[in-house]
Amino acid sequence: MIETTGTTRISDTALIFEGGGMRASLTSGMVVTLLNAGLDFDWVAGISAGASNAVNYLSGDARRARRSFVEFAADEQFGGLRYFARGQGMFNAEYIYQKAGGPEEALPFDWESFQSNPSDMRIIAFDAESGDEVVWSRKDTPHIDDLMVRVRASSTMPALMPPVHLDGHVYVDGAMGEDGGIALSQAQREGFEKFVIVLTQERSYRKVPQRFPAVYRSMFRRYPALGEALLTRWARYNETRERIFALEAEGKAHVFAPERMPVENGTRDLSRLAAAHRLGLSQSRRELPAMREFLGAETV
Question: Which residues form the active site (predicted)?
Fold first, then answer.
């Protein structure tokens, strides 16, 4: 931990954001709280919607963190059945990630601030053909387009959004990978033993198996590794959460888990999304003193 004017750099703890579509309207409140508190983590990972939270955090843009999962849902190009019928996805991912973030666009991304932040980043996606994870870092994103296409790939929900073709590979949502959508194993491989983990499901949540496996295998017959990953994700996800709560019990993790999650991954009702964000802000602010104590970054 290194203290600088107005900020505290956290070097010994990994910050991990789970995905969950529009449930990130709530966890974006944690992004805002961390930024306002001046807690700067040296290593930040995100998968799916968690990748958006991660890059918004690294750009230092609290306003964009909220807008990404609240106001932006009202944009007529955000998605819907019309876009799905055109093959653009229930969420219009090319627009959301690769166009709207440009200068003078609907949701501009502060690329200069992102670049000037010395913290490292990990974004994880899933190779639909090989069944392998891909882990991207800053060296893979020298330009804003390189970053945004990878955030899009990490966030591409199978069947609901077209896969991303990049560098000869076909990528979908990183939640299909080894930890089911929470980048714990990657952080551990890189030597971290302390973690702040931002979840998008309540503590009592347990994922259940898909009810019609033959349907999913047929749906993804072109990508059988993806079909199997989707069908087995529930087990990997539940096991990862068990590991997380065990680390918490050992004093090695501070876990933010929503006390109540009032929205679903596809929610677009602005009043519900705004209410979820307020819940996230309130809970993260209440938990901030305990997080500071865990990090050894108490205010004087």
Answer: 48, 173
